[in-house]
Amino acid sequence: MDYVVIIPAAGQGKRMGAGKNKLLLTLEGIPVLIHTLRVFEADEACTGVILTIHPDDEQSFKELLGRYGITKIAALVHGGRERQDSVFNGLKAAPASEVILVHDAARPFIKKNTIRMLAEAALLDGAAIAAVPVKDTIKKAENLHVTETVERSSLWAVQTPQAFRVSVLREAHEQAEKDHFTGTDDSSLVERLGHKVAIIEGDYDNIKLTTPEDLYFAEAIMKKREI
Ligand code: CTP
Ligand code: MG
């Protein structure tokens, strides 16, 4: 199943505290941004990448794309204030396709097999997300006192990629904008319209680089990585 992918990369990496966009940090000498882009560069089913960037990073990102020979960039667009705005900007610039993926640049360890399964499932169900079963016991609390232990067997930790029929993602973002609704991922915009969202079980090593200790995990995952 051919697809295009929006890669939001327009954040500022505040929680990483690196003093620059965390996507410029390197793993085994190569920037995180490039590790992520290379997965899609190597997947024949990917027909185009829409990269959303922060204006401050425009020059350095363009230089990296050239240096590492990234060829699949169909559009380079400025992101917005929130991740959701960045994705919507990317969507407006996307070339025609039936299926579209959204994948955070900050998750460099995504596997081709998961991508393929997501694209197939999105065509069938309209939307599909990568997720893993929650391992921890999760409790709700107020003022640092437990109010409830949540039944774990139905809980999933959600990742990207998330895959959609383009018409579904477009409707979801347009409606969210009208309603001033902000979600923490794209599938939540689809859910609220009552559409189906399928889960594809992914991998625990598809981590998002968010805080400094994630870099230690990332170094370890790099060593045993297979795309
Ligand atoms: N992102 C984006 N536009 C924004 C905010 C985030 O394109 N306005 C991107 C990030 O670059 C990242 C992905 O969305 O690839 C997931 O966001 P997150 O992990 O929160 O990254 P940052 O927003 O950069 O980090 P922080 O929240 O710590 O500042
Ligand atoms: Mg953020």
UniProtKB/TrEMBL annotation:
The keyword Transferase applies. It is an enzyme of class 2 (transferase). Signal peptide: none annotated. It catalyses: 2-C-methyl-D-erythritol 4-phosphate + CTP + H(+) = 4-CDP-2-C-methyl-D-erythritol + diphosphate. It holds the Pfam family IspD. SUPFAM superfamilies: Nucleotide-diphospho-sugar transferases. GO terms for biological process: isopentenyl diphosphate biosynthetic process, methylerythritol 4-phosphate pathway. Keywords: Isoprene biosynthesis, Nucleotidyltransferase, Transferase. Coiled coil: none annotated. Catalyzes the formation of 4-diphosphocytidyl-2-C-methyl-D-erythritol from CTP and 2-C-methyl-D-erythritol 4-phosphate (MEP). This is 2-C-methyl-D-erythritol 4-phosphate cytidylyltransferase. It comes from Mesobacillus zeae.
